[in-house]
Amino acid sequence: MCLPVFCAPMCLHKRALLRAGLLLFLLHLGACLDDCVLCIVGQPVLLPCLYPELNTFGNFSIEWRKNDQKLLRSEWREDGNVEICSLNYARIPDDAAQNGNFSLELPKVHPKQDKMNFSLFFSAGENEATQLCALCLRVAASFSAPELQSEEEADGDETTFLCLSGGGYPEPVVSWLISDSLQPPEGSVRTLAEPHPESLLYNITSYLTLNISKDSSVTCIVENLSMNETLTATRYGESRTGVVGRASEAMWIFSTVLCVVVGIMVMVGVVYQIHLDRITKRRKKENREEQRGYKRKFQFIEETEAMTEDKKETDV
Ligand SMILES: *[C@@H]1O[C@H](CO)[C@@H](O)[C@H](O)[C@H]1NC(C)=O
Ligand SMILES: *[C@@H]1O[C@H](CO)[C@@H](O)[C@H](O)[C@H]1NC(C)=O
Ligand SMILES: *[C@@H]1O[C@H](CO)[C@@H](O)[C@H](O)[C@H]1NC(C)=O
Ligand SMILES: *[C@@H]1O[C@H](CO)[C@@H](O)[C@H](O)[C@H]1NC(C)=O
Ligand SMILES: *[C@@H]1O[C@H](CO)[C@@H](O)[C@H](O)[C@H]1NC(C)=O
Ligand SMILES: *[C@@H]1O[C@H](CO)[C@@H](O)[C@H](O)[C@H]1NC(C)=O
Ligand SMILES: *[C@@H]1O[C@H](CO)[C@@H](O)[C@H](O)[C@H]1NC(C)=O
């Protein structure tokens, strides 16, 4: 929808009104603000114009003009008869005379309507038409996110960067920055802006050709001030490209996992070592106690072994 810029409905031509005897309007004389309504391509437009007092005139007519060309005309009669003729789907609310809402509605904004003046003229009886509302239309469309490409030139260290964006209106301002702050040298930038023959939307291609170290970053800026829109695309130097970024991220994850695994292994090892130490300590203690009865025990083992062997032989 159109951004909110309100037509000053009180903007009147005092002398013309006095001539027309429309003293009623004197109550509303005020500053005459000719404002522009900013609309987005393809969206409907509403050009506001409010005059609640008009329905006090028995027979009257209004006319919306686009740059002095008739766009819509409507006539109201005392007997309630209404005649409306319009061009290009322009319309006003059905109850315009009752509510005094003569706002012009256009179904779709096209860039060719940019900077056009729209005005509403009123006439009653034999008096000449009086302009009541005047607005201008500003048309805008967003550009696509810029796409930045680079091409190494065959000879020397020169690199050409390409910045592509499209589908916007009006023609934007394209600029470049090197390493986030430096303006590129004069003559290194060439920008082509081409409006589509029908839609009038712009495709832009900007070239930046210069000797640049592979570590420098390059930024392309596409600006449309009335849309209050600034689009940028940045290509980082080789040491900071996306691939390296992803690779270092993978390395980082790998080393973290490795650290954790090694940490766990060390801890397990330490715990196991402590466990082993305890066992050996206990063994040593036991051994010392056992050594005294070792001989007897050894004999005992030999005896039992002999017994089992005997048993095996008998089994066979
Ligand atoms: C309004 O128009 C009709 C027919 O055109 C006419 O008969 C009538 O007198 C007009 N009224 C005024 C107030 O001019
Ligand atoms: C005037 O009419 C338009 C279209 O119908 C509507 O969007 C707008 O809100 C109306 N304005 C007022 C003040 O009623
Ligand atoms: C619209 O109006 C402004 C000032 O009112 C004028 O400077 C401009 O030329 C007009 N544009 C057209 C297309 O008539
Ligand atoms: C702009 O680019 C679009 C898509 O790439 C294409 O369809 C269109 O024809 C181009 N317009 C102009 C004026 O080159
Ligand atoms: C880039 O450097 C080459 C030599 O390496 C030189 O011939 C060329 O003129 C330079 N271009 C610019 C734009 O400075
Ligand atoms: C942005 O778009 C508006 C559309 O009305 C235009 O007036 C303005 O000049 C544009 N800004 C730039 C920087 O192109
Ligand atoms: C543009 O946007 C900035 C912040 O988003 C705001 O401060 C500024 O007033 C805007 N300018 C216009 C012309 O709308």
TrEMBL record:
Checking Pfam families in the record gives: C2-set_2 (PF08205)
* InterPro entries according to UniProt: CD80_C2-set, Ig-like_dom, Ig-like_dom_sf, Ig-like_fold, T-cell_Activation_Regulation
Question: PROSITE patterns under this entry?
Answer: IG_LIKE
Domain of life from the UniProt record: Eukaryota
KW Ion transport (keyword) present: no
GO terms for CC?
external side of plasma membrane
The protein's location, in the record's own words, is: Cell membrane
Q: Where is the Ig-like domain?
A: 146-232
Biological processes annotated in GO: cell surface receptor signaling pathway; cellular response to lipopolysaccharide; immune response; negative regulation of T cell proliferation; positive regulation of T cell proliferation; T cell costimulation
Annotated signal sequence range? 1-32
Name of the featured protein: Ig-like domain-containing protein
